[in-house]
Amino acid sequence: MAYIARGSNAGFQVPDELLMLFGNPKQLRGGRPPVIQVFLTRANNPLLMGTHYNGRPHHGQHQQLTICGSSVTATYYDGQYSGSAGKSSKSAPGPRWSRTDKHSLVFTVHRLHCGIRASRLGGVDQFHLLALAESLEWVHSGA
Question: Full-prediction pTM beyond 0.70?
Fold first, then answer.
């Protein structure tokens, strides 16, 4: 693990957010984005940044997982919105869905909301997101 922050507002954009970054420390110091970001919050109905536009989530793929001994329905997003935020117009189009690099998995277990965002260009596939989610046994302990 390269870095942990509280209240980062980079994922769910809520004050109680806990962020864990995973990546090659040499690359992180060189200004490259982390390979995996894990966001946690207990806030009500949080939305992971990049998975929604104007409060409406992009179509995601539902996955059944077992996390901390519980059956959980997670939503996999095969990309994220990128581009300018705000209102769309012909001269300044709004964000577009991009599958080029980032993809995410969002789920709730034991009232803890978790979002895992990863870089395809960093070598993280959908399988890795699912495996990471199912390995989060410490979530049950109330992280």
Answer: yes
Beta pairing partners, 63: 74
Tell me the per-residue pLDDT of 31-88, one tens digit each, with 9 for 90 and over.
Answer: 566 689 999 999 999 999 999 988 888 889 999 999 988 899 999 999 999 876 545 5
Cβ proximity of 7 and 87 under 8 Å: no
Give the Å distances, CA to CA, from 62 to 6, 58, 104: 28, 12, 12
Strand runs labelled E in 15-55: 18-22, 36-41, 52-53
The encoded tokens of residue 41 equal 């919050």
Q: Distance between CA 113 and CA 46 in Å, rounded?
A: 8
Task: Please check whether residue 103 is in contact with residue 35, taking contact to mean a CB–CB distance below 8 angstroms.
Answer: no
Q: In what order do the strands lie in the sheet with 61-67?
A: 3-6, 18-22, 36-41, 112-119, 102-109, 70-77, 61-67
